[in-house]
Each structure stands twice: as C-alpha cells, then as structure tokens.
C-alpha cells in the first residue's frame, strides 16, 4: 500500500512538471513570433522568404492590407502581380514581439480595390 501512495505522489509530480513544461512551450512560441504587415495593391500577392528558408504567401485584401505572423528572422518581402515580382524589399529584420511595416506603392496612391470594378 505504501508503494501505491509513493507512486501516486510521483505521478502527480510528473504531471505538474509536464504541465509547467507545456506552459513554457506555449509562452516560448508566442515570444518568438512577430509580424510583417503593410499596404499593397488589392489582390496582389506578398511573398516573404527568410534567411533560414521559410517561405510564406498572402493575398492582399480588398482594403489593400496584408499581414503575416512569422518567426523571428531576417526576411525578403516581395510584391507579386500575375506571378511576377514587381517590387522587393530585402533585409527586413523581425525581432521578438514587434512588427515591421513594409508598404508597396499603389496605383494613384489607392491600395483598396475600386468599388465599381
């Protein structure tokens, strides 16, 4: 009977350690991300590539905005139209918990899609 009580105590201690490790992992994951965001022509594609080989794509929304949550690294941000690069920004550093705004020129300074067409 004493062995079972000791085993239950050890199991509770192991569970507490595992719960603490899970909480630390979640906090660590949140603490190592940042974002690249900005304005670009509506409907265009923004592609980011990190120095570590990560690639992500996002379509610019109808209001001419985009945002990507990314791990901390140094990125190249490329604006694409019809599958072709039309503008590129290199060496964009992301640091923990901070975002970096990268805007691309919009026709007639209007990033949002026109209402009529």
UniProtKB/TrEMBL annotation:
It comes from the Bacteria. The keyword Endoplasmic reticulum does not apply. SUPFAM superfamilies: Starch-binding domain-like (SSF49452). Keywords: Signal. It holds the Pfam family CarboxypepD_reg. The keyword Signal applies. Residues 1-29 form the signal peptide. InterPro entries: Carb-bd-like_fold. This is Carboxypeptidase regulatory-like domain-containing protein. It comes from Dyella koreensis.
């Amino acid at each position: 009977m004493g062995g079972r009580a000791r085993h239950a105590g050890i199991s509770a201690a192991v569970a507490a350690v595992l719960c603490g490790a899970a909480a630390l992992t979640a906090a660590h994951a949140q603490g190592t991300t940042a974002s690249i965001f900005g304005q670009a022509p509506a409907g265009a594609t923004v592609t980011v590539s990190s120095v570590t080989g990560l690639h992500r794509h996002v379509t610019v929304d109808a209001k001419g905005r985009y945002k990507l949550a990314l791990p901390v690294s140094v990125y190249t941000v490329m604006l694409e139209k019809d599958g072709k690069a039309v503008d590129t920004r290199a060496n964009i550093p992301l640091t923990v918990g901070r975002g970096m705004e990268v805007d691309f020129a919009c026709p007639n300074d209007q990033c949002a899609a026109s209402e009529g067409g």
